[in-house]
Amino acid sequence: QVKLVESGGDSVQAGGSLRLSCAASGDTISRFHMAWFRQAPGKERAGVVALDRVRSCPYADSVTGRFTIFKDNAKNTLYLQMDSLKPDDTGMYYCAAVLRSPDCGLSEVDYNHWGQGTQVTVSS
Fold this sequence. Notes:
Radius of gyration: 13 Å
Number of helices: 0
Distance between the termini: 40 Å
Order of helices and strands: EEEEEEEEEE
């Protein structure tokens, strides 16, 4: 059973950057399709971007050009580089994983392993 632990969340001003990490244990992330989700205050959790094992996946329109997903298999860690942050990026960020490819899907039901989340707060 893979365990996912997010870190790197913080409070920053608009225009700033953060790098979120999702450290995996119990299994190797190279076997998984992975994704980042976020839940803004008062809203449902929504997908940000997936990292399929074999293909590049599109980003959510709201983060295209500002966020980058990547992983380091040697460190067994998934990352989300977030630049040009906006107040609308505020929320709890979660990483998720699944063995069977959801074809870049960003529905919660597509993933069965979740971290506990890390909080990102962007002030104007």
